[in-house]
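Notebook entry, structure prediction.
Reason for the run: the old model in the group folder had no record of what sequence produced it. Starting over properly, with the input documented here first.
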Amino acid sequence: ALVDSDEQVDEDDGWEYVPLSDQQKFGVKTAGLEDKNTACQMLVCYARELKEGFSEYTEQVVKIMVPLLKFYFHDLIRSAAAESLPFLLESVKHKGDDYVREMWNYICPELFKSLQTEMEPDILAVIMESVATCVEVLGVGFIDGLQMDELVEAMKNHLKKNYDKEEERKQARKDEDYDEEVEEGIEEELDQDDYLLGKIADIIHNLFGVYGEDFVQVFDKLTEYFVAMLAPERPSLEHQWAICVFDDLIDYAPNSAPKYQQHFLEPMMVYLSDANPGVRQASAYGVGAIAIKFPGPNSPYGDFCTSCIPSLVNVINDVNSREVENLSATENCISAITKIFKHVIGIDKLDEATIMTWLSWLPIQEDEEEGPNVYGFLMDLIEANNQFAMGKNNINLPDIIKVIAEAILNKTIKSDEEPELMARIQAFLGPIQANKALWSAILLQLPETHMVLLSGQS
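New structure, fully documented this time:
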């Protein structure tokens, strides 16, 4: 409602007023909006939880939600609208590709338009997350060439804005009015940009995950922005997300990765020593991915991988490496070295000092993704009867069993998700448990929590 500025209004009656000019105010009945928001949030919940059971309502709901992407009277309503869309697509997948494609073609124009036009960073992040999840839910064959071009254009625009904003921040820090208050504003803006860049990286991650090598031609249109983000003078948040994007290139399109190596190899090695743990983590993951995708003693990246080991070791051995904020980066470094040992160097080339040092870095405490890689290599050593791993007269046996128990306790090995690895562990433990005297002696050397767990495994 429009009212004159001098008109007396009561904002406690469910209305809020925003001044439009000296003469008029714009009034919004917020009580009704809250009811609308609650309804939208409930629909998101139903679609997420009921999945196929919600499919008979999706046609009606999608026609409610898509127009709400531009409902600028209430941020959370736009957020709910965006959040609902991948769940609605997921709920109708059983109806066949044609039905899904029809729904997607209804969703896509407004979703991609909102990706371009949304001004609120928090809501824009939800929209980006929705796009990333839609890509994953849809899979191959639903996003056509024109839609992909529109998506790429939207991401390019956001990357350009990010670049320009960083230039503005640099200038602001040189301005004569620069002070602590200005810096606080800059830091707040950096946090927002970090979050949004992470969401763009999620979209690209899912595009690579779905399309693999076929996405490379599209990725070419974005490459220059991520290369620019790797420059030393750019902020560390840009380094992190640019490296993550190249990590996905290596993971999902390894045949095309050499084409870009001049852009990512040197930064990846340099940023292993970065002060930002997120940058170290992304770099370490990339080194490990290269070791896996380009294995063998004649790997074209063998020298690169082995040259990274000293920097990886420095991260692991740092006095603060096991602090909470550094742990994920540290464990990615352990995993990266493990992958180099397994896929590039080979077990038979590792000497006693190297293996003992590697064992001293265990257990992996937090990283559930890298845990199976590390403990899989531990089982490789055991199954190969590696004399250095087991030690003279099997002296290392209690420590190895303790590490395995800790991995199961902290869920860096999940028995339901890693059945093959768990079968290997059981095959290793079985003969030891059969020797009652030996098993009892080992259990007595372990903490009570480990004893209880392993007693249940026997």
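Summary: The radius of gyration is 27 Å.
The old model has been moved to the deprecated folder.
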